[in-house]
Amino acid sequence: MIDPHGGKLINRELTGNSKEKAIEESNEIKGLTVHRDTLLDIGNIATGAFSPLNGFVLQNDFISIIESNTLENGIPWTIPVTFPVQEIKGISEGDDVALFDESKRPIAILHLEQIYKFNFNEAAKSIFGTIDLNHPGVKKMYDMGNTLLGGEVDMINVPSPIVGKYELTPEQTRQKFKELGWKRIVGFQTRNVPHTAHEYLQKAALELTDGILLHPLIGWKKKGDYKPETIMKGYEALIKYYYPKNRAVLSALTTQMRYAGPKEAVFHAIIRKNFGCTHFIVGRDHAGVGKYYDKYAAHKIFDTIGDIEIEILKLMGPYFCKHCGHITTEKTCPHPPEEQIQISGTVIRDMLSKGEMPPKEFMREEISKMLSKEDLN
Question: Which residues are catalytic?
Fold first, then answer.
């Protein structure tokens, strides 16, 4: 089994007496009610999805990520995992701070080591390649503020699930792969309901591996993206009707979408390595939005980022060729653009928002028949 990023799968989830003690402590120490996205980050830190992070990054790590795409210790890392706050009344560096969800359920203890600020333009340019507030990731970072809390976390309770049984931890997926006897596992990232171009990429990768982790991102996404339960239902149908038995595992990655293009592609690859994947698919405009990134910028970054010790499958963007009569790519199809029908999540979401159903060239009927514009955020 592939080693986690940094060599060790982090576990910051309290159990037994330690958990009971932390619950009692949470009623006595200073506390904060935490934004849903930060809660999801706590869950991913605590279960090892963000290994080797033990908590929210400190200032030196933040600066190193922005300037060099590494943690301070040199381990490759491209997206700072931060705890932004609007105000810090009543808490100080060195405090233990109880973190609560909106229902006042204790989620974690933050061992607050640093309170620091960052340069918004510098960080946005590094992470997103732009400071344009029309970019959803940039806008969200701006709205959350530039005051950050840094320090290790101990999780008391798992944040409330979004899609229940599908929210497997890295330890659970690794155990599942062992049970299935898989040695070579490819991870697939998406924020969309599966369409035929996705299926083409997934099955191309399956030819090289023992199995695939279908790992849609379930968390904050921009308006117009799919609802979490819709994405999972789509993948349930795809696996049921179009995958060989015991060749696909479906799980949800509960974290926010950053829309950071190439930097997020590296982040996604590292996460899937922690879940036990030996390979990771990077296609056209991975984690992109609008026209902010070149369509293969996410391929190019892996040539410069350093060795993250997971094999990246750089696959071209599939399309339906009217002349060929099936899904293909520019690597294997000789026909001109006028013969090509481009397939993307954006195109299909636009069709649904207008009440139109995707044609069979775009999406399997078992999936398209269950969709409507109500399935969009």
Answer: 191-192
Q: Is the pLDDT of residue 274 over 70?
A: yes
Tokens of 376: 């969009």
Token readout for 326 is 């099936």
DSSP string, 290-352: TTSS-TTHHHHGGGTS---SSEEEE-PPPEEETTTTEEE-TTT----GGGEEE--HHHHHHHH
Tokens in use for 49? 């999805």
> Within its chain, how far is the Cα of 135 from the centroid?
18
pLDDT in tens, 26-83: 999 999 999 999 999 999 999 999 999 999 999 999 999 999 999 999 999 999 999 9
**Cα–Cα distance, 302 to 91 (Å, whole number):** 40
Q: Rounded to an integer, what distance in angstroms lies between the CA atom of residue 167 and that of residue 171? A: 12
pTM greater than the 0.70 cutoff: yes
Contacts 24+ apart (CB under 8 A), 70-73: 70/306
Domains of the chain: 16-155 (3.10.400.10), 173-375 (3.40.50.620)
CA neighbours closer than 13 Å in the CB half-sphere of residue 5: 32
DSSP state of 30: -
Q: Is the pLDDT of residue 140 over 80?
A: yes
User: Strands of 319-321's sheet, edge to edge?
Assistant: 326-328, 319-321, 340-342
- The CA dihedral of 351, 321, 298, 138, to the nearest 10 degrees, is -20
Q: Please state the φ and ψ torsions of residue 141, each to the nearest 5 degrees.
A: -65, -40
Q: Which residue type does 144 have?
A: M
